[in-house]
Design a protein that fits this description.
Elements: H1 23-30, E1 31-32, E2 35-36, E3 41-42, E4 45-46, E5 53-65, E6 68-70, E7 76-80, H2 81-87, E8 94-99, E9 105-113, E10 120-123, E11 135-145, H3 146-149, E12 155-159, E13 165-169
C-alpha cells in the first residue's frame, strides 16, 4: 500500500509513494523533517551541511564617467588599466554595467585601456546605451562558500571628476 505523505516541498514532487523510483527510497534519500534535499542525503548527513556557493558582488567601480563610445568597435567596455587593477578585475572578465543617466543595464567584458587615462569607453552595440558624460556602475560577481558569505567584503572603487579615485573599500 502506498502512502501519500508530503514533506512540505510538494513543488519538488516530494511525496512518499509517488516518485519515479521506490517511494520509500526517494523519501529516505531526499526528504527529512519537512525539507527537500535535491542531492539527497549523504553518508555524513543531509546536503544542508555540505558547502553551498553563493553569488556575491566581487568588485564595483561606482560613478565612472563615460569618456568615449564607438559603435564600430567589436564590443566590450574599455577601462583604464589602473582602475582595472584597483577594482580587482581581469581583462576579458564578464561584467554587469548600469547607466545612472538612463537606467540601462548590460553585460559585457573588460578590455584594458591606457594606464592613468581614466578611460571608460562603451564599445559596439553597448555604445547605444550611453554617451560620453553619463555615469555608470561597473560590477563583477563571484561564487563564495556560504560559510564565508557573512563576512564577505567586495572591492568598491568610487570615482570622481575625470575618473579619479575618491574613495575605496574592501581593498
Amino acid at each position: 500500500m502506498m502512502r501519500s505523505v508530503s514533506c512540505g516541498a510538494g513543488l519538488w514532487g516530494c511525496t512518499q509513494g509517488t516518485s519515479a523510483y521506490s517511494g520509500s527510497v526517494f523519501w529516505t534519500n531526499h526528504c527529512d523533517a519537512g525539507r527537500f534535499y535535491p542531492a539527497g542525503r549523504g553518508v555524513s548527513g543531509v546536503t544542508a551541511f555540505l558547502p553551498m556557493l553563493v553569488h556575491l558582488l566581487k568588485s564595483k567601480i561606482h560613478r565612472a564617467t563615460v569618456t568615449a563610445s564607438s559603435v564600430d568597435y567589436e564590443g566590450s567596455l574599455t577601462i583604464a588599466e589602473d582602475l582595472i587593477e584597483k577594482a580587482g578585475l581581469f581583462p576579458f572578465e564578464r561584467i554587469l554595467c548600469s547607466n545612472m543617466a538612463n537606467g540601462a543595464r548590460w553585460e559585457t567584458y573588460v578590455i584594458r585601456g591606457p594606464r592613468g587615462s581614466g578611460a571608460i569607453e562603451l564599445n559596439g552595440a553597448v555604445a547605444h546605451l550611453g554617451k560620453p558624460g553619463d555615469r555608470i556602475t561597473i560590477m563583477s560577481f563571484t561564487e563564495v562558500d556560504s560559510a564565508q558569505a557573512t563576512g564577505w567584503q567586495p572591492r568598491v572603487v568610487v570615482l570622481g571628476p575625470a575618473n579619479v579615485i575618491v574613495n575605496e573599500r574592501g581593498i
